[in-house]
Amino acid sequence: MIDGTGRVEPTDDTFLFRVESDGLELWVDTLDHRFWSVHSWSAAADVRRYLKDRVERRRDVDVVWLPSDHLGQIWPGADLRSLRSDFRGERLLPATEGARDVRVQVRGHDSQELLDFLATSQQYRAALAFDHVGFVAADADFGVISEAVNRLGQFAAVGDSFELHQEVVRGVVDRYARLVRLVEARALTFEPLPAGGLRPAGGPILVRFGRTIPDMDVFLDGLFSAREPFRLWGVPEETHDGVWSVDAVDLHMGQRLAVDVSHDWLRLFLPSEGCGNTVVRLVANLQHRFDANVRFEDVHLQAALKAERAPVTAT
User: Fold this and answer.
1) Cα angle for residues 67, 71, 77 (degrees, 5° grid)
2) Residue range 108-150, pLDDT digits in tens
């Protein structure tokens, strides 16, 4: 457990534990051994502070960092009631850049329409990434529930069906876990050959920008200065072909991450046994700090980033 000071009690469910700590009552679902869900009837603000403090104390746990489209497609047929986009580009963009700080919040049944309109704007579309959504989900068997969720995977739910809430959470976690594991499948490693020996496997992960980096010094300083939310540290060195290479350290896991940066793309080399959450955290935060339209070059990774079905490849 992420907290060594509270009282942990097993329940009749092998994967469900009750935790009492700091005056809070938490129910921890460990059915997915890697992606745990924490439920509570305690005040949401208190639970958020508690979990933030506990997660930041350790290197082996992290929150989820939901990409913008994972929030935009939170539940099939959901009635969206509120949307918030929060873009803060002051660390990666120069002061002369337009639309460097954009925050939009809309409430009502037509919440999507305003953001759809802004997304067509050449000036603002790079600065529109979902940070929070509120919606109503209904199911003929389970009932109705009103949900709010932010990009750190924090939910607040009101309604008559905890089962429906669990289904919503499970869908979000499943989509996120799929993206993380697809990233990890690209990690650099060696595979054994049937006849003996090893062959290299995996490869670079290419991220393309929808805008050109206007000031490389500002971008690199903001990205590799060990500060939140990127948690990357390294010293960029310019190569002969105009690419900046960084042998970075991810402060979340203490693992190395090789990164190449050009003016319109970023290339990552995840080491063997590396954590895919490092890459997803980077890309999701680039959506909110540099360009809402960043994308993976790999079609399967991009489909998972967009919360879409993977394309079918003929063999």
Assistant:
1) 145
2) 776 667 777 777 777 788 888 999 999 998 888 888 999 999 9
Q: Which helix (H) or strand (E) holds 244?
A: strand 244-250
Query: Per-domain residue ranges for the chain?
Result: 7-56, 68-183, 204-305
Short-list 112, 266, 277, CA closest to 204: 266
Q: How far is CA 295 from CA 105, 118, 144, 210, 305, in A?
A: 24, 19, 34, 8, 8
Q: Token pair 């700090």 is at which residue?
A: 289
Residue 22 in tokens? 């700091």
Amino acid making up residue 57: R
- Contact between 163 and 142 under an 8 Å Cβ cutoff? The reply is yes
Alpha-carbon span 300 to 312, nearest angstrom: 9
Please state, in angstroms and rounded to a whole number, the distance separating the CA atoms of residues 300 and 74: 20
What angle in degrees, to the nearest 10, is found between the helix axes of 276-289 and 162-184?
100
Q: What is the pLDDT of residues 85-114, one digit of tens each?
A: 999 999 999 988 878 898 988 887 766 677
Which of 12-16, 129-133, 205-209: highest mean pLDDT? 205-209
